[in-house]
Write a structure and sequence with these properties.
four-stranded antiparallel sheet; four-stranded mixed sheet; 12 helices; 14 strands; 14% strand
Length: 499
């Protein structure tokens, strides 16, 4: 019979109890955390490999975080651009779908609606994602656009689009309202020539079915066209001039020979008794047609081009202005060179180089994807220019002249913003962003696969088998209980008293 414990036996029993208790605690922590050890030092010889795996896992998760943020920005940019395309289509439809009906504000319902659309488009270009303005290039902390009222009316001593447009219209029309074309006749010859200027109409082609007339040109610098009559043409024979307008669009003026009185409105010139009489009538009718065209289609083209020159400030540019007095000016230059302070509507990053490169995401060890954008990119500027040009002029409901002016502008805006002419322009930018997004998606898929393998390997080193640990806990619990029982008997103590 054992009656007691000597000092050595007591120490051994207590050491065993303490060791079992510590092992029990370690197993419990392992079960709750799913880890073999709470420090890498506890993994022994496997610690170095575990650290390497953790480093790789962290790197891949960093890539995924960058991809997630970049794809969110691209998604928001694409939403904004899609809406801008939609707005353009709506303006295109409304510009010509309603009758000429001018409100008390001097504008049509379509113009007033377009004003709201322009403001919406500017707001879309100010899209912010997690504190970054996505259309500001590298200046992502700067809201990229000025507000509509400042853009139109100017601000802080700088001219706005109204002033820029007014000057451009006057410069394109010229002092005589003939689109910077010089028209004259000498004897039986009518001459039409461009003026040496950046403004006005440009001669493209001339076609003729006139008999007894020699038509030459455009030739020379600046180009000119001559129509020389040697005798009378036949009635209903046609002479057609094709012009390039300030916005790059084309306009055809067709004249017809008539055996009665001239009819300038219908473009009919009179066949005279002499070549000089015929030439004089042709000159008069052509002058009338050019002047009328300049007032209508020419004004529309000037408004659109002025808006383009105002908005298109990409790659470090600035708004362009007429140099000098508009009616006699010959040169279009930057606002600085023209000496005319002009509001710059875009205030984000405007350095030279690709707008896409203004934001990049590291999505793999050797792969950076560019996805930046600037609000003043040409594809976006075109949308804004056409829409804003439509919002500027006012009209008189009772004026047939104003109705013709309105119709010309509405037609030009509608055509310019039609799905054929405007959709693909902005969509090209969306396509570039879509390619960037696809590259990120593909990289993310690779990282997901790599992470799965790395985490499996890491778990093999750091992780535990839950069932195995649970079984060990049960065994250890039985062992501890047995040790407590044995010790209590040896000390003649209950387990409860021992604890």
């Amino acid at each position: 019979m054992i009656s007691g414990l000597n000092s050595y036996s007591s120490t051994m029993l207590m050491t065993a109890l303490s060791r079992n208790s510590q092992q029990m605690e370690d197993l419990t922590v392992q079960l709750s955390t799913g880890k073999k050890a709470q420090t890498y030092g506890g993994l022994g010889g496997q610690s170095s490999k575990a650290l390497d795996l953790r480093s790789e896992i962290s790197t891949y998760k960093g890539y995924q975080s960058s991809i997630s943020q970049a794809k969110l920005q691209i998604s928001m940019m694409n939403t904004a651009l899609s809406r801008i395309v939609k707005i353009g289509s709506e303006v295109s439809g409304s510009a010509t779908s309603t009758e000429y009906n001018i409100t008390d504000q001097g504008q049509s319902a379509g113009q007033l609606t377009t004003t709201a659309f322009v403001k919406e488009a500017l707001g879309l270009l100010d899209t912010e994602v997690d504190g970054d303005f996505v259309f500001s290039g590298t200046a992502s902390q700067t809201e990229p656009t000025r507000n509509y009222d400042q853009i139109i009316n100017g601000f802080n001593g700088e001219d706005g689009l109204i002033t820029v447009t007014d000057e451009r219209m006057r410069a394109d029309a010229g002092a005589d309202g003939r689109g910077r074309l010089t028209l004259s006749s000498t004897g039986g010859t009518v001459s039409l020539a461009e003026q040496a200027t950046d403004f006005g109409y440009k001669l493209d082609t001339v076609t003729s079915t006139l008999s007894n007339a020699t038509v030459t040109g455009p030739t020379g610098s600046p180009p000119s066209i001559d129509v020389a009559f040697s005798a009378a043409p036949e009635p209903n024979e046609v002479l057609s001039f094709t012009f390039t307008l300030p916005d790059g669009s084309s306009e055809v003026i067709q004249l017809k020979a008539g055996d009665g009185a001239a009819d300038p409105e219908e473009g009919v010139f009179a066949i005279g008794t002499t070549p000089a009489d015929t030439a004089a009538s042709l000159e008069s009718v052509l002058a009338y047609q050019i002047e009328n065209n300049v007032k209508d289609e020419g004004e529309a083209a000037s408004r659109i081009q002025a808006a383009m020159d105002f908005y298109d400030t990409s790659n470090g540019g600035e708004p362009k202005r007429v140099v000098g007095t508009p009616e006699t000016a010959t040169t279009l230059d930057t606002a600085t060179n023209a000496g005319k302070p002009t509001l710059n509507w875009y205030v984000g990053d405007n350095a030279t180089g690709s707008a896409r490169d203004t934001a990049t995401a590291r999505v793999d060890s050797h792969l950076d994807v560019s996805y930046g954008a600037r609000a003043n990119e040409k594809s976006i500027v075109r949308q804004l220019a056409y829409m804003t040009a439509f919002t500027l002029p006012t009209y008189d409901q009772d004026s047939s002249v104003d109705q013709d002016r309105y119709t010309a502008l509405a037609d030009a805006v509608s055509a310019g913003l039609s799905s054929v002419n405007q959709g693909d322009v902005v969509k090209s930018l969306q396509t570039e962003l879509g390619v960037a997004s696809k590259m990120m998606t593909d990289a993310n898929a690779r990282h997901t696969t790599s992470l799965s393998m790395l985490e499996t390997a890491s778990d093999g080193i750091e992780g535990i088998d839950d069932e195995e640990v649970a079984a060990k806990i049960m065994v250890m619990q039985t062992r501890i209980e047995a040790s407590y029982s044995a010790t209590s008997m040896l000390y003649n103590l209950s387990l409860t008293k021992f604890m």
